[in-house]
Design a protein that fits this description.
The chain is an alpha+beta fold. Helix content is 23%, strand content 31%.
Length: 762
Amino acid sequence: MKKRTKWKRVLAAVLSLTLLTGVLGACGEEETAGEGSVSQTPGESASGTGGGPDSARGRYVEKEEILPQELTDGTIHQLFTVEGRLHLLTSMEQEEKTILREWEKQQDGFVDVTQEWLASMELSCGGWLEAQISQGQDGIQYLYTGYVQEGTDSFMGRLWKGGGDTAQEITPKEWSTPNEEWGGYEMIQGFAALDNGTLVSISYSTLYLHSGEDGRVLESDTDVSVYEGGIVTDGKNVYLRSSDGTGGQIEKRPEGRAQDGAVIPLPTGGAGDNVFVFGGGSGSMKLTALKDGTLVAAGEDGIFRLAGGDPKGQWEMLVEGLDTDFAVTDRSCTGLAALEDGSIYGLFQVDGKVKLNRYEYDPDAVSQVTQVLKLYTVYENSLLKQAATLYHKANPQVRIDIEYEYAMYSYDVPDFDAIYKKLNTLLLGEDAPDILVLDDLNMETYVSKGLLEDLDELIRPLEESGEVMSNITGAYVREDGKRYGVPLQYSFNMALGRDITPEQMGTVESLAAFLAQQSESYLGNQTPGELVDKFYPYFCEEMVKDKQLDREVMGRYLEYLKAIGDNCGIVSTRPENELCYSMWDLGGKAKLAFSRAGGFINCMSSMSMVDYIKGDFTAFENRFSPSLLMGVRAQSQYLDTAKDFLRFALSSQVQDTESNGSFPVNHDSLRRQAEKDRSDFSMTTMIEQDDGGYEVFDAKAFPKETADRLVAMCEGLDKPVKEDAKIREVLTECLGPYLAGTQSKEETLQKIEDGLKMYLAE
C-alpha cells in the first residue's frame, strides 16, 4: 500500500493532519498593497543587461537591510506598504500572551507605529499565529488572525476592525461555522481591504466579498481555480495567482469580481516558458501591486515588472535571479513589497532567521560577467542551483548556466539513447559543457576518449585536510592515481529490522545465512525482479572480471539469493494493486525492510520506525550511492574556473545546505547537520496493521545518539554501489526458474553467461 506523507512543523499538538496541511498551505505568503508607481529607470532596462560582458551601465542591485533585534526577537508576519512607506507586522510572546506590533521604516530605521487598538490586543495562540493587516477606506485598518485558541483543537480565522483604543471583532459567520464534511473551519489563504470600503478574502474553496462595516459576506464565488499566495491588491483590483494544472497565471479581478476580469500571463524566460512554479516551494512566485496597478513579481529566475498591470503589456526583467537571494534554494521569500521610488523589498527566511533585502536601481553599476560556464546534468537539482548562485555572488565575473533534460519532479522515464546522442553532439561542438554531472552516465566512455580532466590535484588536498570525506571521494581514485569524478553528495541503503541484529542483516552473505535458519518470512514474498533490484547492485561489479562473467563469484551470490528467496517466498508476478513490503509495513507483518538513507531529515521516518518496532538498523554492505558525480571537460577554455567552482561546491558554504535526499560529502557540513536542532519537526501518516486496520504513526526528531551513529555509518562507507541496466535485465530473466527450484545453479550460470557474453565483449 502506498503511504502518502508530508513533512511539516508542528503547529499545535492537537491539530488534525487534514487541518494541519491546510494551515501550512496558507502560511508565509505576502499580501501587499503599495502606493504610487515604480519610477522608470534611466538607460536600458535590466532585461537588456542580462549578465553578458557587453551589458550597458545601470542595473538593479541587492543590498541587505539590517533589522533591529527588537524585530528579529519576535516573529515577522507581514511585509507591506502604507502611504508609500514600508511596514512590518510582528508578534511577540509576553506573559503567555501574544502581542502584535506595527513598524514603519523611516530615515533613521524602523519605528513602532502601532495604533492603540492593535496594541490592546492580547491573543492566546497556542504557539502558532497567522496575521495580516490591511488598510482600507479612510485609513481604517483591518486585521486577519488565524490560530488555535488555547483550550480548543481547531484552527480558525478571525477578522478584526481597528477603532480607537479597542479592536472590534467582525468575523463573518462563514468563517466560524464548522464544515459539515470534514469538521474544521474555513481555511483563509489571503485577505485585503479595498478602497471602496469592501474587504476580500479567499479560502481553498471560496472567494468572499465582505462589508467593511461588520464583516458580513456580501458576495461569494465558489467557481475558483487552484490558488496560492493569497490576495494582492492595488486598492481597486484584486490579483490572484491561479493554476489550471498545466501552468500558472494571474487573474485580475476589478473590485474582486470575476466579471470584466482579465488574465495576465506569468513572466517568461528566454525559452518562452513560465519562469515561476506553483506549489509553495522555493521557486514559487511572489507578487505585489502598486496603486497604479503596476505589478512586481519575483522568484528564482529574477524580478519582473508589468507597468499598470496591463494584461496585454510586456513583463520587464529588472534583475536576473542569479544576482539575488531568490535563486538561493535555502532562502525562502515570505514577503514582497515595492515603493514609488522604484525600490523593491524582499523578506526571507534563512535557516530559521529573517533577512530583509532592498533591490534598487544603481545607474553606475555595470555587469561584471566575463566568463559564462556551461554545466550539463540529466536531472535538475536544487543543490546545483544553490552552488551556481552562491558562486556567482562570490565571483560576479562568472556565471554558471545549468542545462538539464528532466525537471526536478519529473516522473518521465529517461531516454538515455537520446541523452547520449545529444551529449555527444554537444561535446563535439562550440556549446560543449565545461562541467558534467555524470549521474547515470557511463563515465568510462568519456574517460577513454580523453574528455575528462584529472581532478586528483584538486581533491587530494581536501582529503588530506579532512575537509571532504575521503572514504567517499577516495573511491574514485584509479590504479594510476588519477580520478575523473567526485560526488557532491551520497546516500546509502539502510537495513531496518526486528528480531535480527545489525550484523545479521548487514551484508548479502550474512543475511542469507540468517534467513536460511528462519521459518518465518522476514521480507514478505518477492518476485525475481524485486529480489534482483534489492541485491544485485552489491555484487554487480564483482560478478564481472576481465569482461567475462566470474562464475565462482556469481555462483556464490546465486546461493545467497536462493536462501533469501526461500525465506521470502517467490511469486512470479504481483497483483496490480499490491506492492512488496516496505519500511511502512514493519509495523505489521514485515520483519525486515530497506530504506534509502538520504540526509538527516530523510532518516527521521526510518529512525522513528525503528523505535516503533523496537528494532535496529545498519548500513547495508557499507556501500553508498553517489549523487551529483561531477566531472570537468578537459578541453574547457575555462578549465581553472571550472575546477574552482567544483572546489566551491565541495565547501561548507554550499554543503551546509541540507538536502532531503542526500548527505553532504563535506565533513564539517555532515557534523553540523547532525547537530542541528530538529525538535520542532514532525511527520504524521497512517500505517497498516496485521489485521488490516490502520494506526496513526508519528515520526519525530531522533536523539543525538542516533545522529552520531548515522554519522559513524557515513564515515564507514567505503564503496559505491554499481548498477547496470543490462546486467539487471539478464539476471531478472534467468533467476526465476532457479529461485523456484526448477533450474540448477550450473544451468542458471550458463544462461547468465550466454545472456551477457556479447554485452561484456563490447
